[in-house]
TrEMBL record:
<dbReference type="InterPro" id="IPR025714">
    <property type="entry name" value="Methyltranfer_dom"/>
</dbReference>
<dbReference type="Pfam" id="PF21320">
    <property type="entry name" value="WHD_Rv2258c"/>
</dbReference>
<dbReference type="InterPro" id="IPR036388">
    <property type="entry name" value="WH-like_DNA-bd_sf"/>
</dbReference>
<dbReference type="InterPro" id="IPR029063">
    <property type="entry name" value="SAM-dependent_MTases_sf"/>
</dbReference>
<feature type="domain" description="Methyltransferase">
    <location>
        <begin position="187"/>
        <end position="292"/>
    </location>
</feature>
<feature type="domain" description="S-adenosylmethionine-dependent methyltransferase Rv2258c-like winged HTH">
    <location>
        <begin position="34"/>
        <end position="105"/>
    </location>
</feature>
<dbReference type="InterPro" id="IPR053173">
    <property type="entry name" value="SAM-binding_MTase"/>
</dbReference>
<dbReference type="InterPro" id="IPR036390">
    <property type="entry name" value="WH_DNA-bd_sf"/>
</dbReference>
<dbReference type="InterPro" id="IPR048711">
    <property type="entry name" value="WHD_Rv2258c"/>
</dbReference>
<protein>
    <recommendedName>
        <fullName>Class I SAM-dependent methyltransferase</fullName>
    </recommendedName>
</protein>
<dbReference type="Pfam" id="PF13847">
    <property type="entry name" value="Methyltransf_31"/>
</dbReference>
Length: 364
């Protein structure tokens, strides 16, 4: 066995070096192919191939892109195993299989993943800002990442909120009974594109559901998504201001995948506690990370640290005085925030299989 010695005197065998070099190459390859998915998603190439197979010339004509680039992209996609192909020469035809079509073009599918590639590309554009933030200790605000990240976040969660949220909440009697009250008031704090708000409003048509967010473009998009739905309102509002709308105003309040982003989560939870009646419910849905730091982590842990490094922590740190939670908000951290806000306990609701999320019930 060949052995090398590093500068600290630690011995390393060549096989371990080769294996880790291969690990790095696999990630490089994945990153390149993720960007190729972004090209196909953003230019509408997958949508065209979903409707009918195409040669390079046909794809170029249908999407108004250059024929040479069309051929290279199609061949790369087939090489990566995304597209099927048959024929040869100019008659080489490419087809998008049904499973790939669902994942890359069907916004209602729980496996819809194209927005992840769009978000990856948008974050890559911000690397100079992120490097500066890492050196200076400042942040990169959410707005700086642009529409691709904002819309991507909304699009990736939409099928879960539209198709699964109602069943998930109905499975917990303690929550379902409160939401089913006549004229129940429900607050959705940091609602983003409003898909969670809309999911609640459709599941509980007798309730009045108010969605709040500080991001104006997100609220504008939420209004568009909710067109025709009469028991929903959307407003620009910070979570810390929720109680300003009235003490004991709401029967229930939710924070879906957002508390870890907030510069002052204790102030937000305190405001929610005051705004929700004593016999109401407060639910926080956040990432289903491990109970404690214990590397190496599973895929969920790795993904959430990726989000944290590149989006959530820089966004949080863009606000002076932020507690800088980051995406990896563990149960103990949420419990500490909740206790400081006046809640007595934080329990985990028996909702499984809801993407990579966990539902917490905050008790008073």
């Amino acid at each position: 066995m060949d052995v090398t010695v590093d500068r600290d005197g630690e011995k390393t065998d060549e096989q371990s070096v080769e294996e880790f070099a291969g690990w790095v190459f696999d990630r490089f390859l994945g990153g390149m192919e993720t960007l190729s998915i972004h090209i196909g998603s953003s230019l509408g190439l997958y949508a065209v191939l979903r409707d009918a197979p195409a040669t390079a010339a046909e794809l170029a004509a249908r999407t108004a892109i250059d024929r040479r680039y069309a051929r290279e992209w199609l061949e790369q996609q087939a090489t990566a195993g995304i597209l099927d192909s048959d024929g040869e020469g100019d008659e080489l035809r490419f087809r998008l299989p049904a499973a790939q079509a669902a994942v890359l073009t069907d916004g209602a599918c729980l496996g819809y993943s194209a927005p992840l590639a769009d978000m990856f590309a948008a974050v890559a554009l911000r690397m100079p800002d992120l490097m500066d933030a890492y050196r200076s200790g400042r942040g990169v605000p959410w707005a700086a990442f642009g529409a691709a990240v904002r819309d991507g976040q909304g699009d990736i969660n939409r099928p879960w909120f539209e198709n699964v949220l109602a069943k998930a909440l109905a499975s917990v009697p303690q929550v379902h009974e409160v939401l089913s009250r006549p004229d129940a008031g429900i607050a959705d704090v940091a609602c983003g594109h409003g898909w969670s708000t809309i999911g609640l409003a459709r599941a509980y048509p007798d309730a009045i559901v108010d969605g709040f967010d500080i991001d104006a473009p997100a609220i504008e998009a939420a209004h568009e998504h909710a067109a025709g739905l009469e028991n929903v309102t959307f407003s620009e509002l910070r979570g810390e201001q929720l109680a300003d709308r009235g003490e004991d105003r709401y029967d229930a309040a939710f924070v879906f995948e957002a508390l870890h982003d907030m510069p002052d989560p204790v102030a937000v939870l305190s405001a929610i506690s005051r705004a929700v009646r004593s016999d109401g419910v407060v639910v926080v849905m956040d990432e289903a990370v491990a109970e404690a730091f214990s590397p190496p982590g599973d895929d969920t842990e790795r993904a959430m640290y990726g989000y944290s490094l590149l989006i959530c922590l820089p966004d949080s740190m863009s606000t002076p005085g932020s507690v800088a939670t980051g995406t990896v908000m563990r149960h103990a951290t949420l419990e500490r925030y909740a206790h400081e806000a006046g809640f007595s306990a934080v329990g985990v609701l028996p909702i499984d299989g809801f993407a990579a999320f966990r539902f917490y019930l905050l008790e008073r």
